[in-house]
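in:
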């Protein structure tokens, strides 16, 4: 989902549908076009989310403040730096890169229509093509990232 959709998630917008949960954000990018937005939350993602569902705003801190897109981005950058400090080779990430990487994995395994659905793209595959890379492109990016990490 988009970072803003995650940060604005409310418990009342999530419904259980068998093995998955559906998140229907009241506000989303294409609401002004009258388009619905349904985000499927699978079992693995639900295990991460479930402890936070007790509060109306899902990602609320104990002090009562809530996550926003800026804080979410900072947390991801902090986690990637901590992983590198622990010896894991990885580039910096931001929320949308994680979203697009997920779209790429889905596209590679299930095709462009599935990636479009996961990313919430409702028109053609053009925008999905822009945000997902496949095959040789991914190998080039991964190799270049490793080289860049080594040369600084």
């Amino acid at each position: 989902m988009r970072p803003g959709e995650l940060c604005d998630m409310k418990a009342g917008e999530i419904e259980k549908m068998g093995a998955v949960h559906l998140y229907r954000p009241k506000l989303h990018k294409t609401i002004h076009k009258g388009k619905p937005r349904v985000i499927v939350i699978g079992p693995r993602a639900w295990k991460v989310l479930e402890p936070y569902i007790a509060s109306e705003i899902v990602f609320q801190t104990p002090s009562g403040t809530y996550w926003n897109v800026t804080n979410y981005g900072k947390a991801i950058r902090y986690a990637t730096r901590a992983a590198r400090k622990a010896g894991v080779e990885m580039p910096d990430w931001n929320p949308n890169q994680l979203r697009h990487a997920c779209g790429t994995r889905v596209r590679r395994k299930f095709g462009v229509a599935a990636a479009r659905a996961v990313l919430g793209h409702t028109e053609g595959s053009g925008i999905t093509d822009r945000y997902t890379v496949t095959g040789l492109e991914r190998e080039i990016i991964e190799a270049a990232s490793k080289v860049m990490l080594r040369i600084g």
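note: The longest strand covers residues 14-17.
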